[in-house]
Design a protein that fits this description.
The chain is of the alpha+beta class. The chain has helices at about 10-15, 35-40, 45, 60-70, 120-135; strands spanning about 20, 30, 75-85, 90-100, 105-115. The protein has a single domain (about 10-135), classed as PAS domain (Beta-Lactamase). It contains five helices and five strands. A five-stranded antiparallel β-sheet has the order 2-1-5-4-3. It is globular, with a radius of gyration of 15 Å. The two termini are about 25 Å apart.
Length: about 140
């Protein structure tokens, strides 16, 4: 079986950000057209699914635990994420997740904006994520 290939993020993003929104449990409530295109899913396939439907198995659980801790505290989280497309290929994104709050200041959901991650940042984080994954075993 061939190893899935990385997609050409710079080309496929075409200068646009990918955006998604979730409820407080991480269930997708909105995905913009570019997100659907890059992930290889239709909007109907994504809406109502847990956001981790696109989580690549190389991603350490600890990275997401830290993200959840940060956003549930009302702060924004920034990091690099390796995502899995529907067709098995993958792509790296530079991600910012921000809590959405109602008038009373209560968190009602989250919005994530992503752009292509730089090759330099990907190279720097791969080893860190590999070590984090090894600690999970």
């Amino acid at each position: 079986m061939e190893r899935p290939e990385i997609i050409d993020e710079e080309h496929i993003f075409d200068g646009r950000a990918i955006i998604s929104e979730t409820d407080t449990k991480g269930i997708i409530t909105f995905a913009n057209r570019k997100f659907c295109e890059i992930a290889g899913y239709t909007p109907a396939e994504l809406k109502g699914q847990p956001h981790n439907v696109i989580r690549h198995p190389d991603m350490p659980k600890a990275a997401f635990a830290q993200m959840w801790e940060t956003i549930q505290s009302g702060q924004s989280w920034h990091g690099l994420v390796k995502n899995l497309r529907k067709d098995g290929r993958y792509y790296w994104v530079d991600t910012e997740v921000t809590p959405v709050k109602n008038e009373a200041g209560e968190i009602t959901g989250y919005i994530a904006a992503r752009k292509p991650a730089s090759r330099k940042n990907i190279t720097e984080i791969i080893e860190t994520y590999k070590l984090m994954k090894e600690k999970e075993s």
